[in-house]
Specification:
It is built from 4 helices and 2 strands, in the order E-H-E-H-H-H. By secondary structure, it is α+β, with helices and mostly antiparallel strands. It has one domain. Strands 1-2 form a two-stranded parallel sheet. It is elongated and about 50 Å long.
Length: 86
């Protein structure tokens, strides 16, 4: 029997859609465990494994992003931008 291929799904833990999408894809791939081995990987655990951003600023970058989304900010980082609103 062949060894399963490993898939690292790297996601940004902000909003909740990124993590939910990664989890849903992992669930589908895990239906065939002889073929796939799936690991979810948070992007900032790779980029900042010592959590220096949180130590320097007092909050995680994901928290910063989520707070701005909650205030209605868009990808353009301006409330008045229409080109990036959903």
């Amino acid at each position: 029997m062949p060894t399963p291929s490993t898939i690292d799904q790297i996601y940004f833990n902000a909003g909740s859609g990124h993590r939910s999408s990664a989890s849903a894809l992992r669930a589908v791939l895990r239906r065939d465990p002889q073929r796939w081995r799936v690991r979810l990987v948070k992007l900032f655990e790779v980029l900042d494994p010592q959590d220096r951003f949180r130590k320097m600023t007092g909050s995680a970058l994901e928290d910063w992003y989520n707070q701005r989304l909650a205030r209605g900010w868009t990808l353009a980082w301006r409330r008045s931008s229409r080109c990036f609103r959903a």
